[in-house]
Amino acid sequence: MLRLVIAEDAVLLRAGLVELLTRGGHQVVAAVGDATALTAAVDAHRPDVVVTDVRMPPGFRDEGLHAALDLRERHTGLPVLVLSQYVATPYATRLLGAAGAQRAGLGYLLKDRVGEVGDFLDALRRVAAGETVIDPQVVRVLLHQQAPDRPLARLTPREREVLGLMAEGLNNQAIGARLSITEASVVKHCGNIFMKLDLDPAEGNRRVLAVLAHLRGE
Fold this sequence. Notes:
Rossmann fold; 6-stranded parallel β-sheet; 6 strands
């Protein structure tokens, strides 16, 4: 059972998340509708995971992400799952980069692309366990936002595809299956990526976090 704080300004969606998570065997210790209440709830309850929207009162811009960044600085290692309708920047890239520094669980899912309840609950468990779970569309947006003079410009189109799947958390076998290429080819592409981007070819979640930190510009 996970102890959760939920921040979502849409009343019906907030109530639905509470019901869904409760039925999933978790405890929602607080469900709030704005960023200020989110900060207060986390300080008071010290939850296992925070689930937050991006746009919330009073400005309906990036208040949820801004609060998440602040909370992760104050509560080192706090897992956060962002559930949003769009990819918000620059706070999104800052949050993803901070995950690499903290080695803490982080998720960024787009509401309209969560197709199964089980997938959402699985993502929540993975984030709580310290993993990184990023929607593929978020990865694509971040990759396309890179300036032409950045090291990513050194990559071939195929290497950029492999990097995007790597950032989603896929291992070499899964990347090969997705791109219909051999695992040996994936290993070669990964080697080229790490060489061109000066990244340590660490496996598993550390590899994902290194890629996300690089996308942030660190």
